[in-house]
Amino acid sequence: MKLYPLKFNPVYSYRIWGGNKLKEILNKDYSQECIGESWEVSDVENNETLVSSGALQGKSLKDLIKEFKGEFVGHDVYKNFGEDFPLLIKFIDAKTPLSIQVHPSNELAKERHNSFGKNEMWYVMQAEDDAELIVGFNQTIEKESYIKHLKDATLNEILNIEKVAKGDTFYIPTGRVHAIGTGVLLAEIQQTSNITYRIYDYDRVDVKTGEKRELHTDLAMDAIDFNHFENYRTAYDLEENVSNKLVYSPYFKTNIISVSNEISKDYSKIDSFVIYMCVEGSLKVEYHNNQYSLQMGETIVIPAALNKLKLIGTKAKLLEVYL
Questions:
Q1: What is d(CA 240, CA 300) in angstroms, rounded to the nearest whole number?
Q2: What angle do CA 213, 84, 56 make, to 5 degrees?
Q3: Are 105 and 174 in contact (CB under 8 A)?
Q4: Which residues lie closer than 8 Å to 318 by C-beta, 6 or more apart?
Q5: Nearest residue to 312 via CA among 267, 289, 282
Q6: Alpha carbon distance 273, 69 (integer Å)
Q7: To 10 degrees, the CA torsion angle through 145, 148, 154, 156?
Q8: What are the backbone angles phi and psi of residue 225, rounded to the nearest 5°?
Q9: What's the CA gap between 108 and 71, in Å, rounded?
Q10: Cα atoms found within 13 Å of the Cα of residue 14, Cβ hemisphere only
Q11: Distance from C-alpha of 246 to C-alpha of 253, rounded to nearest angstrom
Q12: Percentages helix, strand, coil for the chain, rounded to the nearest 5?
């Protein structure tokens, strides 16, 4: 059986803060209310995505890795991660703010949860007027001062709040306090991890449970980076029809491609799978004379063995992700 560009059936997740943009803007197919996340490519236990079509339909990421090993993920990736797929790919719709939260480092996550840490990045696809994100602190803060603000419910006084618009990009390393604000639709790329420490959740009650959500203030304390940085936003170029560097981290590399023509891609020097997230417009991915359509809000995985392909479109933007 041969590999080909793979789409997966998304896993939709209810969230207390979720809205309807995943359906209304990204054309996701679900009937539930308050869907906040579409997990596009996931190897998280009990939330695995399955191939949606073709000869490999119904296969999970683990199934594919077991069968194809380095041909699917890349030989170095297979050597480093075995049968665990290293990335989790999502679209997120925040109708109301997410909790103020932090993710543990690889070391802390391994020790406490036998999990990867959760370094991640955000690319804003749509934002309402005055939409905001919380990313880091607006000053270097001592732990004692942080605790006082937490107890007084005045965290916003020390948090860095960013007004955002379409195209804004942020890298969120482990330890950085953060939250997605009201009216933001974004693409999220992260390590495969489902570990989040909630610090503050606005005292709201989940209508499904009738209770407030659990906070993890003590666990978060040892995970937080209290340093202040001058700039949290990622600057990048957007030259057409080439891969423009967006976020390069030890855990993943992401480029952005503005597609306005036919582009030939050669991945023979990248020993990794490649993931395309369409964040604007539509295009076609061509491999061996077969074409795979990709609309805004869709994701496709290019196995490592598929070195050469074409992107064909006139007005589209893609996030290009690999290890």
A1: 21
A2: 105
A3: yes
A4: 256, 257, 259, 276, 277, 278, 279, 283, 294, 311
A5: 282
A6: 11
A7: 30
A8: -95, 110
A9: 32
A10: 8
A11: 8
A12: 15, 40, 45
Is it true that 8-221 and 244-322 share their CATH fold? Answer: yes
pLDDT for 59 equals 98
Domain boundaries, the chain: 8-221, 244-322
For residue 168 the two structure tokens come to 């804004």
Instruction: Give me the pLDDT at residue 208, please.
Output: 85
Write out residues in the chain with pLDDT < 50, as ranges. Answer: none
Question: Which tokens belong to 185?
Answer: 């639709």
Q: Under CATH, what is the fold of the domain 8-221?
A: Jelly Rolls (2.60.120)
Angle at 296 between CA 171 and CA 60, to 5 degrees: 75
Q: Write out pLDDT tens, residues 130-146.
A: 999 999 999 999 999 99
> What is the predicted pLDDT for the residue at 262?
96
Residue 116 is predicted with a pLDDT of 85
Q: Angle at Cα 224 formed by Cα 152 and Cα 227, nearest 5°?
A: 90
Quote the CA–CA distance of 218 and 223 in Å, as a whole number. Answer: 9
Architecture of domain 244-322: Sandwich (2.60)
Q: Euclidean distance between the first and final Cα of the chain, in Å?
A: 25
Tokens 């570990």, located at residue: 195
